[in-house]
Design goal:
globular; Rossmann fold; DUF5615; alpha/beta; five-stranded parallel β-sheet
Length: about 120
C-alpha cells in the first residue's frame, strides 16, 4: 500500500497547497510551479501527474472530467480530485488530509472524485 501523493493543477489556489503541507508536513504535495504546469493542456497535466504517481488536485470542473475520461481510455491515471472553488481553504485542506490519511495510492488509480460531491 502506497501513500497518496498530490500534484496541484495550475488553477489550484496556492493557499491550499501551502496550508495542507503546513498542517501535515509529511504529506507530499507538489506545486504546479514546481512541476512547470502553467500553460499546459489538461492532457499534458494528466500525463505529468501520472508519470509521477500523483493524484491531480484541481478546481477545473469544466474540462478536466472529460479530459480524464479520454485519458484513461488509453493510459493509466493516478487519479483526479476536483475541489469546488466555493470550498473554503480550510475545508479543502481538511478534505485533502482526510484523503491522504484514509486512502492509498492504489485506490485512486483511474478514479475521479469531486469535493463536495
Amino acid at each position: 500500500m502506497t501513500t497518496v501523493r498530490f500534484q496541484a493543477d495550475a488553477d489550484l489556489r496556492q493557499a491550499i497547497v501551502t496550508g495542507t503541507i503546513r498542517r501535515q508536513p509529511n504529506l507530499d504535495f507538489q506545486s504546479a510551479y514546481t512541476a512547470e504546469l502553467e500553460g499546459k493542456k489538461d492532457s499534458e497535466v494528466l500525463a505529468i501527474a501520472a508519470q509521477n504517481d500523483r493524484v491531480l488536485v484541481t478546481h477545473d470542473r469544466k474540462t478536466m472530467p472529460a479530459e480524464f475520461g479520454e485519458f484513461i481510455m488509453s493510459k493509466t491515471s493516478s487519479g483526479v480530485l476536483i475541489l469546488s472553488q466555493n470550498l473554503s481553504v480550510s475545508d479543502a485542506i481538511e478534505a485533502l488530509i482526510l484523503v491522504w490519511e484514509a486512502s492509498t495510492a492504489e485506490e485512486w488509480v483511474n478514479q475521479i472524485m469531486s469535493i463536495p460531491f
